Amino acid sequence: MDRFRREKTIQEEILSGNIPDHLRQFKALKLEGYDPSGHTITATAYVCSDYLAIGSNQDYVLVPMSALTAQMIADQTQTILPTRKIVDLIYQQAELRLAPQKQESSGLQMISIPYFQAHDQSIQKQRKAAKAQAGQLLAGHKKDVIITNRLDHKPKSVALYGWHQPNGQNLQPLSLQQIKTYVDYSHGIRLLAPEVHIDGKHYATVDILKHPVFSELLSDEGVILNPRAILP
Q1: Cβ proximity of 70 and 191 under 8 Å
Q2: Of the candidates 121, 128, 161, 118, which has an alpha carbon nearest to the alpha carbon of residue 142?
């Protein structure tokens, strides 16, 4: 497939429900912050246990996709892409951490299906060796497409972050160097649920991102007014 048809097909397959069951349930992510008086705020966000994939429980593949496709899927499922802080928290709280599997950089091959497949197979070997269980919160094996205030100034870019190493340091600092249609084998899409629970109460995640106090639970950049990977 050409890249346009490939992106369209990825979107159609995921939205039609051709995904493994463990991606249908969210995992709790503990959050902590402080109110203006200094009292601790405890909260819970909910994230997919792994990056988006196509296939059945027994036979699936993690699928890199453009930020455009990822945002369309998020819009249709009323979910949100993570912030840099959420990516860090996922790694810290992951039930299983996988080491990044870098492949040789070779231009156009990096954006090809064979490269996507080879990288997925290397991750599957890691899972098998670690005796990973479906539904465990996994981290470290992909870079994340994220939301960030920096997109306000570079709206034609894709924001990438993560790919944490076993020492906790990430290989990919926050970067907006690539255009929003770019995607390569290392990219992963993880979704955040539309609600956050704070002290037992339900709040819309987008409202928390815009809140002058509560936003620090989800963001290390302060308030995020445009909670999308692709700005309107």
Answers
A1: no
A2: 161
Reported pTM:
0.95
| Contact (CB, 8 A) for 67 and 107 | no
Dump pLDDT digits (tens) for 68-93.
Answer: 999 999 999 999 999 999 999 999 99
CA distance 1 to 62: 17
Q: What SS3 state is found at 138?
A: strand
Domain boundaries, given as residue ranges, for the chain: 3-217
- Locate 42 and state its tokens: 């405890």
Both tokens assigned to 223: 């308030």
Q: Where are the alpha helices (DSSP H) in the chain?
A: 3-15, 67-77, 84-93, 113-130, 205-210
Helix ranges restricted to H, 16-164: 67-77, 84-93, 113-130
Mean pLDDT estimate for the chain: 94
Residue-wise pLDDT for 101-120, tens only, equals 988 776 778 888 889 999 99
